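Q: Structure for this?
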Amino acid sequence: MKETTVERKYLPEMQQKEMDELRNTVKVASEKIIADNIARMKKADPHRPDAMKYFDDIANLFGKRQQEIEAEKAKGKKVIGYMCLFAPTELITAADAIPVRVNSGWYDTSKLGDRVVPVEVCPVIRSTIGAKMIQLSPFLEQSDALISVLTCDGMTKLSEILSDQKTIWGMNVPRVKDSTHSLRFWSDEIKQMKTQIETFTGNKIDRKKLKESIEVSHRATKVFRRLQELRKGNPVIMGRDAMLVNQAYSWDDKVRWTENAEKLCNELEARAAKKDWVVSPDIPRVMVTGTPMFWPDNWKLPTLVEEGNPQGIIVADEQCSGERILNDPIGVDEWSMDDMLNAISERYLMASTCPCFTSKDGNEDRINWLITKIKDWNIQGVIYYVIRGCMLYAMEYSRVKKALDKINVPVYYLDTEYTREDVGQMKTRVEAFLEMLNARVDF
Amino acid sequence: MGTQRVKAVVLKDGQVVGRSQAFAGFDPTKATEQAVAEALTQANLKLSDVQHFAATGSAMDMAPYEHSTVSMMSADAKAGVSLIPTARTIIDVGAEEARAVRCDERGVMADFVVNERCAAGAGAFIEAMARALEVKLEDMGPLSLKAERASPINASCVIFGESDVVSLIHRQESKPEICRAVFDAMADRVSSMIHRLGVNPDVVLVGGVAKDVGFVASLNRKLGLTVKIPEYPDYVGALGAALIAAGRVKGGA
């Protein structure tokens, strides 16, 4: 889709020269951060699984994957980007298009976004705006169309702002999840999106293709669950490595991701059999819940936990940048088109634990998920992670704290921003929290 | 190892046998070496007599002789309960940062809260306002106790402190009343921090600022209770680290 030439509603005019300079500066810095993150992850596990090499490679947002997608576009394939987990990627792949998630994990571009929206706005949104301004994000730029899901204030207006330069399809998410009325409404949104994708790509989504797409997702979910199961017992993989693998799914080729995740699980299983633990099983086992942590700049918290003094390990997360991506399979009964579409609608709406919904039971799905995870993964402490500006996650903290207080699991509210400057402050808090977890075990 | 001063405590057979402090300045490592030397002299001990050095505080990674480190939260909890066995909430207000810890009877941390983002909730505020008022730092507290009300201060941001004082004096506000306003503003910040933690008696106040009667009076008013203050409150963090060091020598964590 070519760039629109109508008057921009939001985005400022920038000289191509300025855009190019800024993009190059940020890109070089970002590649360095990616390399640095990976170097540190390698250091944490002296005999890191061989299978991680694949994911280290895919982790370079400006590398192989960008080139592949470019090659596919040259052959006529359409790229449909999305900014939220509600986007039904199975419909995209069934139409022979490439789905790719375009959430922005760059700190530097959030400062550019400040030129368009005030600093109080969610940093992820500001970062995305900034990335668009300097054409930084490979996947955002390569997207022929973008699916934007109108979950929160930030996403709602981001949609409009990006429409200055991109074709955006907004999907309305009902604020109340648990009602037949809402599911019917959402099912209509899904059906409408199906038609939209078919028209846009010129490819009909037939029963056979959709079945194949859903099966690809099923296989991915299966290996994802296998990987998370391997994090239940004594540690065979560092949290940062598992988190990178999980997140990479959202921009990688799904079939190839699955194959490589299988290889990783094979290696980890062999380790478990030999009791070859990656760290002492005695260190605090932590779960992170809250706002997403997008690669690469947002690796602050996991790094502080896993390189902390005392050291901790992240064995699980409840984030849409992590385990929420692949946790729930699409439950299909019969493989008719109607049944598949209903199954997709249900899966994308009902499985969500996003705080954008409201309900009388107060996001009980999320609470239950957290509690089950704590029990089964033997989690000793929870870090409630909030990027300042996110009202939804911030407001659900009290709910989560009360629930976890009841089962005597410590929760620590840790807020941060799209900045490198607060690492010192975060370190103090993280290390005190890990000390606290250690002390509880000692007695 | 605080942002303004470093303190050293020597513990022998569970008793404090030496304590000393020094300005951190540009070389906290060197300042600490001096404080340690002085504290050891008081105790009639040599450097080689020390079995374990534990460092705590914002500059703890710059400590000399360091065998281990421990967070200020753990240190405060440990020392707080050791000094005042009924302590369950320990508030530590330093030069640039304030923190609070909730703990049990063993001094094990249950929860904590930190505020290093607003200097108006720490000693730096008193210093800035003392300069602006041309009052000696140690006189701020006693002066504030003479006031029956607090001046209405607009900006309780340390940055604007000085210009604020000028306009207050012009409006015929007295120095005692301005002092009280300073302490009330600090107490306000510290108390909202503590309410995030939950106020669990007994509440103990430590840190250099605990020596200031003006701040203590404001905090008691704000919290609606009387905080307990141990002897040598500015040494509590160092004492906590020493107690934890002793535990580590015995082979504990």
